[in-house]
Specification:
5 helices; Rossmann fold; binds 1,3,4-trihydroxy-5-OXO-cyclohexanecarboxylic acid; single chain; alpha/beta; 18% strand
């Protein structure tokens, strides 16, 4: 089995660190990538961290995860989490396990964030731990929990 874990980030996550720090913290996406790379190395995994503001790009990358034989995908789809049937279908279309990741806990926020299309198909959801949500999700992959 491949050691590659794709870490896919959706809209507005390129602004982490600047964007609503009282909700999302002050850690940037690059800092999260660095932290995850270190942890992945310790766990014998490799990560490929990406960000896009475009829904269809996330769909393409999910397909690519399967085609490239990735072990798993960590997916923070941002607001597309709550709107995208295309992402739900893409997760269902691939055999690669997907872990839903959020820095905040959407279920304790506005009602429109309580629905998660990603969560309807994800193997696991890790949310509410700030930047640590990514590390916890990666460790779940390493432990074979998904
Ligand atoms: C988020 C939660 C979403 O509701 C929001 O739209 C985001 C970030 C999170 O990581 O907490 O963009 O996915």
């Amino acid at each position: 089995m491949s050691n590659l874990v794709l870490v896919l980030n959706g809209p507005n996550l390129n602004l982490l660190g600047l964007r609503e720090p009282e909700i999302y913290g002050s850690t940037t996406l690059d800092e999260i990538a660095g932290m995850l790379e270190d942890r992945a190395r310790e766990l014998g995994l490799e990560i490929d961290m990406r960000q896009t503001n475009h829904e269809g790009m996330l769909v393409d990358w999910l397909h690519e995860a399967q085609a490239g034989g990735a072990r798993a995908v960590l997916l923070n789809a941002g607001a597309y989490t709550h709107t995208s049937i295309a992402l739900l279908d893409a997760i269902k279309a691939i055999a690669t396990p997907v872990v839903e990741v959020h820095l905040s806990d959407p279920r304790t926020r506005e009602p429109f964030r309580h629905v998660s299309y990603v969560g309807m198909a994800a193997a696991l959801t890790v949310e509410g731990h700030g930047a640590d949500s990514y590390r916890i999700a990666l460790e779940a992959v390493a432990k074979g929990e998904i």
